[in-house]
Amino acid sequence: MTPSELRLRRVNHRGHRTEWVLNPLWVRLETVAHEEFGIEKLYLVSRGQRVSIGSFLGPDEKASFSNALMTALHAARRGPTYNPLA
In terms of C-beta density within 10 A (0-12 exposed, 13-18 middle, 19 or more buried), how is residue 42 classed? Predict the structure, then answer.
């Protein structure tokens, strides 16, 4: 993920690749949660596209991944930061 693009690649068991390039400014993370079991599904939604992500993760892992992805999306939307010490 960069401030200008989010690349998502899915590779199936036969090696077939599907890739999406999304703009972090327009992407939103959508979750489907069950009251008792937690997050069941995660989707990246942008301009009419809805891509399922993390389906192989358990509910707790989906929650952790969702938080980390939201943090990364917010950082990408802010853009690069200047750090004179780096």
Answer: buried
SS3 of the chain: CCCCCEEEEEECCCCCEEEEEECCCCCEEEEEEECCCEEEEEEEEECCEEEEECCCCCHHHHHHHHHHHHHHHHHHHHCCCCCCCC
Q: What's the pLDDT tens digit per position in 54-86?
A: 999 999 999 999 999 999 999 999 988 777 886
What is the model's pTM? 0.82
The 10 Å Cβ neighbour count of residue 16 is 8
